[in-house]
Amino acid sequence: MTPHNEAAAGDYAPTVLLSGDPLRSEWIAETFLEDARCVNRIRGALGYTGSYQGMPVSVQTTGIGIPSLSIYVHELLETYGARVLFRVGTCGGLQDHVRIRDLVISQAAATDSGAEGESFGAYRFAPAPDLGLLSAAAEEARKSGVRHHIGSTASSDVFYHSAGDERYRPLRAHGLLAVDMETSGLYTLASRFGARALSICMGVDNVFTGESIAEAERQAVFRPMIELALATACGVS
Predict the structure, then answer these.
(1) How, if at all, do strands 178-180 and 34-40 pair?
(2) How far apart are CA 226 and CA 230, in angstroms?
(3) Which pTM does this prediction carry?
(4) Is 90 assigned a ligand-binding role in the annotation?
(5) Phi, psi dihedral angles at 88 (to 5 degrees)
(6) Any idea of the CA torsion for 39, 42, 45, 50, to the nearest 10 degrees?
(7) Which domains, and CATH codes, for the chain?
(8) First to last CA, the chain
(9) Taking a C-beta distance cutoff of 8 angstroms, is the pair 76, 85 a contact?
(10) Residue in 236, 235, 226 with CA at minimum distance from that of residue 26
(11) Per-residue confidence at 51, pLDDT binned at 50, 70, 90?
(12) Please, which pLDDT band fits residue 115 given cuts at 50, 70 and 90?
């Protein structure tokens, strides 16, 4: 038990799917997991544990942004023994070919976050996923035929920025695929704890083309993202 999580030791599986939205966490548990039970309700950050094709799997809500995600991921890794983490969230495309409903698998994550402070001294840490998870997800995505992209992404601490979308032009010019608010923090913590992590996000809008998915549609289109994460987890377990 922690200040943010009422789960007991052993309540979380080694493999955890991370969703920013508690309603998405609930939907994942009810739709994909067998015998799912709720293990955390503190602050509405719902956590569930069940099984998928016989493999224990948990789902944990992380909230929005690196500071919030870092609390839950740190505790999952340090207190609850999680070892394999998948972010299953949303992102905004930065390239014209990254369309809504496409999956983006992050192979590296830049950030404007100051959450790490002076952790790395004069260095700028380059957060990256576990190569085994990345390779397995790429193969699963290819086999399934789901439209996807693999490349570098960015994680921002700021949603409503005074500079607007112009701040993303240098990222776009350097080929970054999409922007979210969490991936960089996940990869950094996984590296610190010697765990495995991968971020798989669905494009729900595009910063430069203006395409977007209506909020009411979003839960319904997430199935391919969750299926890819779970298939990858089963393949590497």
Answers:
(1) unpaired
(2) 6
(3) 0.95
(4) yes
(5) -125, 90
(6) 0
(7) 15-236 (3.40.50.1580)
(8) 26
(9) yes
(10) 226
(11) very high
(12) confident
